[in-house]
Amino acid sequence: MACRHDAPSTSDAPVLTREKPTATRASEPLPLPKTGAGNFESLVADYESKERGIWQKPELVIAMLGDLSDKTVADIGAGTGYFTFRLVPKAKKVIAIDIDQRFIRFLDSVNVRLPLQYRERFESRLAKADDPLLMPEEADAVVLVNTYGYIQQRVQYLKTLSKGMSPGARLLIIDFKKNNLPIGPPEEYKVALSQVEKELITAGFVVEKIDKDALDYQYIVLATKPSKTKTQSEQ
Ligand SMILES: C[S@@+](CC[C@H](N)C(=O)[O-])C[C@H]1O[C@@H](n2cnc3c(N)ncnc32)[C@H](O)[C@@H]1O
Question: What is the DSSP letter of 128?
Fold first, then answer.
């Protein structure tokens, strides 16, 4: 499912974005393309808008994951790779996961233009809506930015995701606050922070940190998959 999180504006996004987006004011929210059909160019312009850097603060967000130089990071709902391609220079490997083939193609088209040393750290993966298709304990860190509200049966999804994370791996969820914001998706696609916390705990994660203030429009939740508890015979 494709989704919109910003009122599009003049953009430096790639050639795909030359077509003028169909809504230009925050007061005129676009209907969300539920099937992902059409409107791809305006989604790209939206995700990659110049203004996004101001409110998204990607470097601050990425720093919350600590040193990634020996870590495999999964970017779930990678979209155009706004976070993926900022993570690639910092991580051992980045798996850009999406359920929309058009974004997978877009991600691959960006990746081929990267220097070889970065290209080799990148992998795109077309996943299923109910499964990110990670191998057991494959990811040492996971980012889910502006995507959580589009996932159905989230507790089950988080349990499946957890299997693909190494013990102690961090999960960073960033999404729009449930307020009448000038940007972001319609309220129906937002999940209240308290709900995210509850769902993470139900799925077996430990919530390490919640930050409602660092980003103007979004909350940040940092959770971890608990390290394996020792069995009695190991103790
Ligand atoms: C609003 S975009 C966010 C893209 C990117 N994370 C960013 O912040 O720019 C949401 C993305 O999540 C993808 N998506 C929606 N549901 C998904 C699911 N169940 N699993 C993986 N990706 C999903 C969409 O195709 C879309 O690319």
Answer: B
pTM summary value: 0.85
Tokens 């990678």 correspond to what residue?
78
> Would residue 29 count as lying in a domain?
yes
Q: How many Å is the Cα radius of gyration of the chain?
A: 17
Nearest CA to ligand 1 atom 19: 129
In a domain, residue 174? The reply is yes
Domain extent at residue 84: 25-224
> Is residue 17 situated within a structural domain?
no
- Choosing from 99, 125, 142 the residue with most ligand 1 atoms within 8 A of its CB, the one to mutate for a pocket test is 99
Residue 230 Cα to ligand 1 middle (Å): 36
Distance of alpha carbon 235 from alpha carbon 228, whole angstroms: 12
* pLDDT for residue 141: 98
User: Where do we find the tokens 């969300």?
Assistant: 32
The confidence band for 145, taking pLDDT boundaries of 50, 70 and 90, is: very high
